[in-house]
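Reviewer comment 2.1 asked that we show a complete input and output for one of the modelled complexes. We chose the adenosine-2'-5'-diphosphate case, as it is the one discussed in the main text.
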Amino acid sequence: MKNKNVAIVGATGAVGREFIGCIESRGIPLASLKLLASARSAGKTQSFRGQELVVEELSEKAFDGVDIVLFSAGSGISKHYAPLAVKAGAVVVDNSSAFRTDPAVPLVIPEINAHRIAGHKGIIANPNCAAITTMVPLWPVHRVNPVRRLIISTYQAASGGGAALMEELELSTRAYLDGKDYPPKVVKYPYAFNLFSHNTAIDMATGYNDEESKVIKETKKIFEDDRIAVSATCIRVPVLRAHSVSMTFECERPITPGEVKALLTGAPGVRIVDDWANNYFPMPKDASGQDDVLAGRIRTDLSDPSGKSISMFVAADQLLKGAALNAVQIAELL
Ligand code: A2P
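Response of the prediction step:
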């Protein structure tokens, strides 16, 4: 990424803004940065390293002279424009779900499978945010004592639904406190002081929603292990920007909480927050703005007498490690 010509598609969005923030905070020198969004944003400015950059309307010609494009404008935009960017000679890091399950496209979490980047054919996919939050702290265990079964419940923040859903959470909360009515606009359900099943389509054959299916498929692809059985319940909670996940996993061999803690201590991208005496564990408030996934409540799953199962609670900033930071880390490794 160093000294390259970089473009961001979806630069005005919740993740797009964090792409800019990550490039700034990591001090990555660029030859140029182009900000692309819809016609609605063309002509607006956004600051980058003290300069005001003008947002341009995304078009088929926008990628001329660009080396790396970071996409986060939804999968429809990625499906149409990412191949055009590749044709123009750029490498794409795509934050949408458009290419994640394509066997020819690497799906990368740098702490786990950075080696896959080298095999790209122009597009590298950034995984689903709930998958990243789950997998970063699970990988150090899986690589030494393979996980055979994983059950997760997620507590997903508004940021995963974009800037508009974050605004809906704020406005509906304010209206609720003011005793006013707030008709939901972005999701179908009242969001303030409520939670609901993830707002993606349900597969009528299995009852799993699209988010849950993504986590299941992506875990197998990134761990390169089809034998890992995964079940997920994905829930949207009234938190602004960090996802939490409650997980229980069964390993191939018996494992103790002490062993899990030892494996996670110093593991890249993980910070242990596991203070039993003070009942202090990972919280979205503490994960917000942080690069690391916070991991705690590491304990034996008492429902499994074989001693092979562990329960754990984790939290990570959805906009950073769950999206923009992971994509920028991939781009740095290109
Ligand atoms: P815009 O702000 O001009 O609508 P979020 O994930 O926060 O909802 O952000 C989505 C991003 O994708 C925004 O930057 C948005 O730009 C951009 N976007 C949405 N539709 C299009 C489109 N048709 N062409 C280009 N960019 C788009």
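The chain has a mean pLDDT of 98. We note this here for comparison with the apo prediction described in Section 3.2.
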